[in-house]
Amino acid sequence: MAKYAKIPEATVRRLSSYLKCLEELESKDEKVASSSILATICNVNPAQVRKDFAYFGEFGIRGMGYNIKELKEHIKKILGIDREWRIAVVGIGNLGSALLVYKDFLKQNYRIVAAFDIDPVKVIGNISERVGRPVEILHVNRLKEVVEARNIEIGIITVPPTEAQKVANQLVEANIKGILNLSPAPVSAPEHVKVRNLFFTSALDNLVYYLTN
Amino acid sequence: MAKYAKIPEATVRRLSSYLKCLEELESKDEKVASSSILATICNVNPAQVRKDFAYFGEFGIRGMGYNIKELKEHIKKILGIDREWRIAVVGIGNLGSALLVYKDFLKQNYRIVAAFDIDPVKVIGNISERVGRPVEILHVNRLKEVVEARNIEIGIITVPPTEAQKVANQLVEANIKGILNLSPAPVSAPEHVKVRNLFFTSALDNLVYYLTN
Known about the structure:
The first copy, chain A, is α/β, with parallel strands linked by helices and 213 residues long. The first copy, chain A, folds into two domains: 2-79, Arc Repressor Mutant, subunit A (Orthogonal Bundle), CATH 1.10.10; 85-201, Rossmann fold. Helices cover 47% and strands 15% of the residues of chain A. The first copy, chain A, has ten helices and eight strands. Chain A has helices at residues 9-27, 35-42, 46-54, 68-79, 94-100, 103-107, 125-131, 143-149, 161-173, 200-212, and strands at 32-33, 66-67, 85-90, 110-117, 137-139, 154-157, 178-181, 194-197. In chain A, strands 5-4-3-6-7-8 form a six-stranded parallel β-sheet, sandwiched between helices. A two-stranded antiparallel ribbon of chain A has the order 1-2. In chain A, α1 (9-27) runs antiparallel to α4 (68-79) and α2 (35-42) packs across α3 (46-54). The longest helix of chain A is centred in the first third of the chain and has 19 residues, at 9-27. Chain A is globular, with a radius of gyration of 19 Å. The interface between A and B is large, with 70 and 70 residues.
């Protein structure tokens, strides 16, 4: 897919945002979206929407807007989420528990197939009820074995910050492909493993910047 | 602060990320950071680091790097987080509960001063223990009154997606300045209220894009 290699990171981020907006429109039985509607919902300007989509060729009809279903499929293909991704969550405290029942994971192609903790006897009956199946929490020392056995490609880190890098190292050792770190401490990994650190403070920093300036 | 008005959104985002990395270095007793160290930790290239900082004038010393303490203060000032921001969290399920004890909020100038739910009798004894004070959950119908009485400027939404826009409307009505929405359903608000929708799926989309391409 080398032809997509030069998409700016900001565009990649917006594509994901457009996808959410398209799903929102679809849930309201809309079939077609104009760039101005997408722009309004996604908080960008219409020219930006058209520019972003132009990276991938023409798929809007002038004066008509975009077919929502087609555009969704196109974006999913570009992002690589037109297939299932198998995920392990490490650290089943409040945040990890929230992810196990996060509606959009269940709905989309992100499938959490393993949950790990250093305390495998954690009681999460409430979650089991909500996802409609028993949620089994495994001891983190089984990480490598289970990642391999269940073809897990992505690890989400939701342990306390003091443990985050250690867990990242364990995930690397388990031959994970990508890491999403939600702990407040940044983690790093060798270059062949992709890492995204997502900090709630950064989302607030961004908000505050625009409130201040 | 009009002179900062033209900072690209991607730079604002990276500034926040640099700040996290500087704190990480500081916690290891480092005093000075080179652009290449910052680049490595933050997953960007050194030229990008220097370019980002150049928006705000010169504050590195050539060949010496940046004084971590000074750079931190500078970034905080630019972002507007050199003062306290008072926050309400609406929706005290697993995710809301996680935020109440999120280490970096407690450590930084983000102060959660109110927690709301439609079920105000929720038992969160464990959280009370961890934050070292009783966490009082108020009924969401007291939102407007409490936002005003406690000078709350930011609302974080952690309710189920079906309730998210409703809560956003209530926050707008309570004269909130900014909204960070962590529910999977995008919310919108009138232009005078800034909104950031943070989706966990978007973080995964971004990771998957770079795993695929």
